[in-house]
């Protein structure tokens, strides 16, 4: 019931259903900016992470999410 205590600001997941996307985005958010992206890459989850840094925000797409990004 407590808020997260890491610098991960947001996680967006593309999945076959809204329920799956919601479940994975919540799980990856709770895992944090290190373990979340590692799990997404290992399971082939399309996830986009926004991380708070000392200079603002940084983005980190999973390998699977990269197919949604324009070159």
Beta-strand proportion: 25-35%
Strand order of the largest sheet: 1-2-3
Contiguous runs where pLDDT drops below 50 for at least 5 residues: none
Report how far the terminal alpha carbons are from each other. 40 Å
Specify Rg, calculated over alpha carbons.
Answer: 12 Å
Number of helices: 1
- Give the number of DSSP strands: 3
How much helix, percentage-wise, in residues? 25-40%
Largest pleated sheet: 3 strands, antiparallel
Which structural class fits the helix and strand makeup?
alpha+beta
Order of helices and strands: EHEE
Which of globular, elongated, flat, extended, rod-shaped describes the shape?
A: globular
The mean pLDDT is: 94
Task: Give structural notes.
- By secondary structure, the chain is α+β, with helices and mostly antiparallel strands.
- It contains 1 helix and 3 strands; from the N terminus they run E-H-E-E.
- Strands 1-2-3 form a 3-stranded antiparallel beta sheet, with helices on one face.
- A hairpin with a 2-residue loop joins strand 2 and strand 3 (about 55-60).
Write the SSE topology.
Layout: E1 8-14, H1 18-43, E2 46-53, E3 56-61
Antiparallel strand pairs: 1-2, 2-3
Brief summary:
The model has no long low-confidence stretch (mean pLDDT 94). The longest helix has 26 residues, at 18-43.
Labels describing this entry:
71 residues; alpha+beta; three-stranded antiparallel β-sheet; 3 strands; 37% helix; globular
